[in-house]
Amino acid sequence: MCKVVPMKILIVEDETELSESMASYLKSEGHVCEIAYACVPALEKIALYEYDVVLVDLNLPDGNGMQIIRELKDMKFAGGIIIISARDALDDRIKGLDTGADDYLVKPFHLAELNARVKSLMRRVLYKGDNQMVHHEMVIIPDERKVYVHEVLLDLTRKEFDMLMFMAANKDKVLSKEVLAEHVWGDYIDSADSFGFVYAHIKNLRRKLDQMGVGKYLKTVYGVGYKFTDA
Predict the structure, then answer these.
(1) pTM summary value
(2) How many domains does the chain have?
């Protein structure tokens, strides 16, 4: 089964069984998932880390999920927002979408449908509706987790693909080693003593790109991090 490029997803849901089953399913699809069970911890995570998708329930123990959506919009959040709620009234759907959510999923739902909504949302938000990203001689196909150079398949490990995809999707943006590590490995990476493993993955990725004759698109910004750009 083809899997979409991994996203960093924050699940804001106070029902423990549901939130854990959502995280487990989405992780099986290759995504990095984190859970917050209330508004305050969710807002703390949003302030500290970057996410591609936020899944937010409206009824939370310490407030309303709309508060989180408004905060994301105030921060100019560029990712996707999906409301997951037991409220199925038309007024609730309209209010949620008007506040800034991209999609509204009513409980109960099948986890496969949730995954399909996430994939559709990220094509629309991050990849501008395309099923592939073309950068000169390189073609990246997120759904198939494949990269072609001059129509030849590039042999990448899962982490190498994840890092290349993340950098290509953030073209011309300088990404620190910490941001790369958090996106690919999750916020538990905070406990790491160093980020040397990021350098090792970048080094291997750059070597493979060079061997295939790819342009020098992966740049090192000394003392800051890395960016993907035109040569």
Answers:
(1) 0.63
(2) 2
Residues 64, 70 contacting (CB under 8 angstroms): no
| Whether residue 14 is found in the same domain as residue 74 | yes
| Residue that wins the pLDDT comparison between 126 and 3 | 126
From residue 130, give the alpha-carbon distance in Å to each of 39, 119, 141: 33, 12, 9
Q: Which domain holds residue 25?
A: 8-125
Same domain, 21 and 115: yes
Q: Minimal CA–CA distance to 165: which of 35, 52, 12, 42?
A: 52
| 190 is a domain residue | yes
CATH number at residue 20: 3.40.50.2300
Structure tokens, 159: 């982490």
pLDDT in tens, 161-176: 888 988 887 888 888 8
Residue 50 DSSP label: -
Segment 84-99 mean pLDDT: 83
**Share above pLDDT 70 across residues of the chain, in percent, rounded to a whole number:** 89
The Cα–Cα gap between 131 and 145 comes to 11
Of 75, 103, 125, the position where a domain reaches its end is: 125
What value does the mean pLDDT take over residues 41-69?
Answer: 91
> Starting at the edge strand that comes first in sequence, how are the strands of the sheet with 53-56 ordered?
32-36, 8-12, 53-56, 80-85, 103-106
Same domain, 106 and 173: no
- Predicted pLDDT at 1: 32
